[in-house]
């Protein structure tokens, strides 16, 4: 987007000006030190006007304060109510009228630069839908941030797709924008955490930190001259601007009183503030560039994953190192401490990526991907975690569980979950003897992890192995793209034929993390559904916790649904029947 490119170019030029400005102030500070040793005061103060040639802070104060500072600068330039006038101590100290006039001309030129940058930012906001979004500031900042990051990538000749950056920003800095999302400070960050960064929005926020409304109040209370000084001090605090007139005013007073050391200190302090502001912006821009590079590197690593292994190769190690350095989910990090789990993680990453698509350009990614259904053997254990762990980023809009806790599922229920056909009104429950035994109470909704405020049992999923009849059927379905149904993809968890040990029993939260990671890489979102038994399989019963979170059933209870006249002989149903009905027909 041209607007973002122009703004990035202006910010980089501004950084260069900051350095030049600071160098000049340090030079002037040294001149003042020389005055103390007998130099000509008029010559030194006259040299101060050359700072105007490179200082943009005075003009950019207009930009930083939303345009309010402009009248202050104009008033100062006209000699109205300020110490910087033709009869000021500076002029009396030796500045000629022609030199002073030249300084004012340079300030006006800088004002043009400030207005141009301000217009570029506004143009970018308008292009990003600022007029339509109105009060939805987060949406606007999110899009502006993504556009600026993309402009930085283009500046470095790095191809990072805009949708990819949008997905990353939603998954990190703007998680709070999604329903049930968390505050930005608590958002999990795939990359932001190790870099100790804030988003590019911080750059925008810092240059607009002084609100016109608050500055207006100050002007009304303390007058133009004092407000100008207050404004410069505030700008100095954020390190992004120094009011030139304020600086001249104070320096002139000190020089007039022959307090050369203090005047020199003011100039040195101002130079330090300018350098700090320049450094801060430089670090933020460079950090965004580093994020672009890391994201592109990781995307290429994952896209190039091929095959499964019983050891950790170089690519796998890089991915694990990246996850361990950046992931803020303690459960995932803790699980990855073991080498065997690291190998399983990389294999699972390869497996899910392969099922979703070999390449992001393939047809499944061209469609709107709304739902992912995991099918596997499942059980719950006597460990609990927050339900929100199963909705780690906005790329996972929700994770839906269907059966109550400690409940098995029948092939018909699994088929309904996979196809998106099951309804809360047509689910049925039977015990081992075939007696109807509906849980009491039984919620009238599915178990949404995004909507839950309670802890849930840890769910473990294990793969379908080659010795099971369902394995061949699932393999055939996957090879013939038979697991794609309209806007949903069914992912059966099954072991590769020649590497059965490549997959083991893996927590559902790892499946969800892997899925969210891949969705972020490819700039997609989806709701995850689970078709698996949730029996306790020998773990201690926890009926109170189960009931508090959702509902539970007695041991051996099976959830099913009425299939009506649907196709019960399809290959998918045969596979599900072989998987789920072998132990409780």
Automatic annotation (TrEMBL):
The protein, known as: Uncharacterized protein
Family indicated by similarity: Belongs to the apolipoprotein L family.
Cited InterPro entries: ApoL
BP-aspect Gene Ontology terms: lipid transport; lipoprotein metabolic process
A GO CC annotation given for this chain: membrane
Keyword Membrane annotated: yes
Gene Ontology terms, MF aspect: lipid binding
Coiled coil: 268-298
């Amino acid at each position: 987007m041209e607007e973002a490119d122009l703004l990035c170019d202006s910010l980089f030029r501004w950084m260069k000006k900051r350095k030049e400005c600071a160098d000049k102030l340090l030079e002037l500070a040294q001149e003042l030190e020389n005055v103390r040793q007998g130099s000509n005061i008029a010559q030194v103060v006259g040299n101060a006007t050359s700072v105007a040639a490179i200082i943009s802070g005075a003009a950019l104060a207009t930009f930083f304060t939303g345009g309010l500072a402009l009248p202050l600068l104009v008033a100062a330039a006209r000699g109205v109510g300020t110490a910087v006038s033709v009869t000021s101590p500076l002029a009396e100290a030796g500045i000629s009228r022609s030199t002073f006039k030249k300084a004012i001309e340079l300030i006006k030129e800088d004002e043009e630069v400030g207005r141009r940058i301000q217009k570029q930012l506004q143009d970018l906001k308008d292009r990003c839908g600022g007029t339509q979004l109105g009060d939805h500031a987060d949406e606007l900042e999110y899009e502006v941030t993504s556009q600026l990051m993309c402009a930085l990538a283009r500046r470095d000749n790095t191809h990072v797709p805009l949708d990819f950056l949008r997905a990353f920003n939603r998954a990190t800095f703007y998680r709070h924008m999604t329903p049930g999302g968390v505050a930005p400070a608590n958002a999990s960050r795939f990359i932001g955490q190790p870099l100790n960064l804030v988003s590019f929005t911080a750059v925008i926020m810092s240059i607009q930190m002084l609100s016109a409304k608050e500055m207006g109040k100050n002007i009304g209370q303390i007058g133009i001259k004092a407000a100008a000084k207050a404004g410069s001090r505030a700008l100095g605090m954020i390190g992004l601007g120094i009011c030139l007139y304020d600086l001249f005013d104070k320096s002139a007073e000190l020089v007039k009183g022959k307090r050369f050391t203090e005047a020199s200190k003011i100039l040195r302090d101002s130079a330090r503030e300018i350098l700090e502001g320049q450094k801060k912006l430089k670090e933020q821009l460079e950090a965004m560039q580093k994020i672009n590079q890391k994201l592109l590197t990781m995307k290429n690593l994952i896209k190039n994953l091929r095959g499964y292994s019983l050891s950790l190769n170089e690519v796998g190690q890089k991915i694990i190192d990246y996850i361990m350095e950046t992931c803020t989910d303690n459960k995932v990090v803790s699980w990855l401490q073991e080498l065997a789990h690291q190998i399983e993680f990389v294999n699972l990453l390869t497996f899910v990526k392969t099922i979703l698509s070999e390449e992001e350009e393939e047809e499944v990614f061209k469609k709107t991907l709304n739902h992912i259904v995991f099918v596997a053997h499942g059980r719950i254990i006597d460990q609990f975690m927050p339900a929100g762990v199963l909705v780690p980023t906005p790329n996972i809009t929700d994770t839906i569980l269907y059966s109550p806790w400690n409940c098995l599922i029948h092939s018909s229920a699994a088929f309904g979950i996979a196809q998106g056909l099951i309804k809360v009104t047509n689910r049925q429950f039977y015990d081992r003897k075939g007696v109807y035994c509906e849980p009491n109470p039984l919620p009238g909704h599915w178990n949404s992890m995004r909507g839950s405020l309670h802890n849930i049992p840890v769910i473990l999923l294990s793969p379908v192995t080659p010795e099971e009849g369902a394995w061949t059927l699932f393999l055939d379905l996957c090879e013939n793209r038979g697991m794609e149904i309209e806007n949903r993809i069914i992912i059966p968890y099954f072991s590769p034929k020649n590497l059965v040990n490549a997959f083991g029993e893996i927590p559902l939260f790892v499946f969800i993390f892997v899925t969210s990671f891949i969705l972020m890489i490819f700039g997609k979102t989806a709701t995850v559904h689970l078709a698996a038994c949730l029996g306790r399989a020998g773990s201690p019963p926890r009926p109170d916790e189960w009931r508090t979170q959702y509902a539970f059933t007695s041991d051996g209870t099976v959830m099913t649904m009425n299939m009506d006249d649907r196709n019960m002989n399809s290959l998918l149903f045969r596979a599900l029947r072989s998987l789920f009905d072998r132990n409780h027909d």
